Automatic annotation (TrEMBL):
Belongs to the inorganic phosphate transporter (PiT) (TC 2.A.20) family. It is found in: Membrane. It holds the Pfam family PHO4. This is Phosphate transporter. It comes from the Bacteria. The chain crosses the membrane at residues 40-62, 68-90, 102-123, 143-165, 177-196, 202-224, 236-259, 271-292, 308-327, 355-374, 394-413, 419-435, 467-492. It is a multi-pass membrane protein. The keyword Transferase does not apply.
Length: 497
């Protein structure tokens, strides 16, 4: 090859190399553009859904007086449902995704199906118009004032949950609606219209819910460590105790669903719910014995093998939690909307109103769309960024959520499912910190060599920044929603909607 040919070849290679680099830069730019545009796609789909909900309401209500108000209420309800799906559902699916029992896509698919089924099948036929009895109905007896209050409560709760989702804080949508109703009630009828003892009980749940969830989750994890993980023959212990734990889980969720799901359709008291739970737990426990034995054959005697046995129960528990959540929390989106529809059609105010099917469909679809479009952010945060989860720890969190709700219902305590689930994650993380500190090398007779502050921070298993952000968001949810609601109420009254 001549020198001229060699020079030409080198120039050609440099040309192709330069072209490859340019294409690589363009590919990275295209990927970055697609990544940043995903949020715009979500916003566009959300706006289309809200608009479609408003138009559907206008068509279904027809030319009745104040039909525009119903369309506005439908838009606000759709907006609230989207935010519930974006924020609240993460508490059910986050642990399963963090434990890698489910992929993000699988979690979203299961949650969307179960949330929709729970809302449509067990969402209930009637809903209370004055949420949790926190506002005196006499203060909202005028139909126009009542409609303004419901619209203000719905819009303020939606805005607050949306802001919380943006900053990555899982908050209680129920507390957001409660704050919205309280703020609208104060704006309409003054401070005296609010039942402050009821509000005090709700405020107490800010502490009670996460503490109960954390204690139950930590206790379950301690039991699993004691009976299964830290024994000589882990597989034999798992064959004995995993069916018991699965039966316990089945019983807890059967009771939970009876109270929070079927209880919306038929009247079930605590005693009958517990009987249903005991029967389901015994049956499922016995059925799972041969299944666990077959699944454990050939597994090595190590902790990694145990994760396989807890994966399916964790997935089932996440699905059941989503079903119960759809049945229970869809009212946060459609309750005020149903109240506005009733008030506009009957020109009166009632303590309880029936929920039209089209209203329930808006709530169910909105939760699913919000989950699909915006849910991955909170699911990833809850599952991966608070503390490290595996199938055993995530199972403890899911079981804790069901047990805590049952215990709180029995004791008559107002609790938040969001606070319980996230509290369970904190409880698992803080228990692991305590356990590792108690059993770390160098600890002799209850005394341990002091660690340097930097090393102590490195050994923390719960991210303190997320802990402080979430707790702060919980504390200010009710007052923030109340202030937003009062502003919305005054704006609606000024506009004369």
């Amino acid at each position: 090859m001549t020198q001229h040919d060699q020079t030409g070849t080198d120039a050609s290679e440099r040309q192709w190399k330069t072209l490859d680099q340019d294409l690589n830069r363009l590919s990275r730019l295209e990927a970055a553009t697609m990544y940043t545009s995903r949020s715009l796609v979500g916003i566009g789909v959300s706006l289309a859904f809200v608009t479609l909900a408003a138009l559907s309401a206008a068509l279904l209500v027809g030319q009745e007086p104040q039909g525009l108000v119903v369309a506005v209420a439908a838009a606000f309800g759709a907006y609230m449902a989207l935010n519930i799906g974006a924020n609240d559902v993460a508490n059910n699916m986050g642990p399963a995704v963090g434990a890698r029992a489910l992929s993000m896509l699988g979690a979203i698919a299961i949650a969307a199906i179960c949330e929709t089924a729970g809302a449509l099948l067990a969402g209930g036929d009637v809903v209370s118009t004055i949420s949790k009895g926190i506002v005196d109905p006499a203060g909202l007896s005028d139909v126009r004032v009542f409609v303004w209050a419901m619209l203000a409560a719905l819009l303020s709760a939606s805005i607050w949950v949306n802001l919380a989702t943006v900053i990555g804080a899982p908050v209680s949508t129920t507390h957001s609606v409660v704050g919205g109703v309280m703020g609208a009630g104060i704006a309409a009828a003054g401070l005296g219209s609010v039942s402050w003892p009821t509000m005090g009980a709700i405020a107490a749940s800010w502490v009670i819910s996460p503490l109960l969830g954390g204690v139950f989750a930590a206790a379950m994890l301690a039991f699993i460590k004691w009976k299964v993980i830290y024994v000589e023959d882990k597989i034999a212990a798992a064959r004995t105790w995993v069916p018991v734990l699965i039966g316990f889980m089945a019983g807890a969720f059967a009771t939970y669903l009876s109270l929070k799901g079927l209880g919306k359709v038929i009247d079930i008291d605590m005693a009958h719910a517990l009987l249903i739970g005991i029967a389901a737990g015994v049956v499922v426990g016995f059925v799972s014995v041969p299944l666990v034995k077959r699944q454990s054959e050939g597994l090595e005697n190590r902790n990694r093998s145990l994760k396989v046995l807890f994966r399916l129960p964790l997935v089932v528990s996440a699905a059941l939690l989503s079903f119960a959540h759809g049945a229970n929390d869809v009212a946060n989106a459609v309750g005020p909307l149903a109240a506005v529809v009733y008030a506009q059609q009957s020109a009166g105010v009632a303590g309880e109103v029936s929920i039209p099917l089209w209203v329930m469909v808006i709530g169910a679809l909105g939760i699913s769309f919000g989950l699909i479009l915006f849910g991955p952010k909170l699911i990833g945060m809850v599952g991966n960024q608070i503390t490290k989860l595996n199938p055993m720890r995530a199972y403890c969190v899911a079981l804790s959520a069901a047990i805590t709700v049952i215990a709180a219902s029995w004791l008559g305590l107002p609790v938040s499912s969001t606070h319980i689930a996230v509290g369970g994650i904190f409880g698992v993380g803080f228990f692991r910190e305590w356990y590792m500190e108690r059993n770390r090398p160098g600890r002799v007779k209850g005394a341990a060599r002091p660690l340097a502050s930097r090393e102590r921070r490195r050994r923390k298993l719960v991210r303190r920044s997320h802990f402080m952000t979430i707790v702060a968001a919980w504390v200010i949810t009710v007052p923030a929603a109340a202030m937003l609601s009062a502003l919305c109420f005054w704006a609606l009254r000024a506009m004369g909607v």
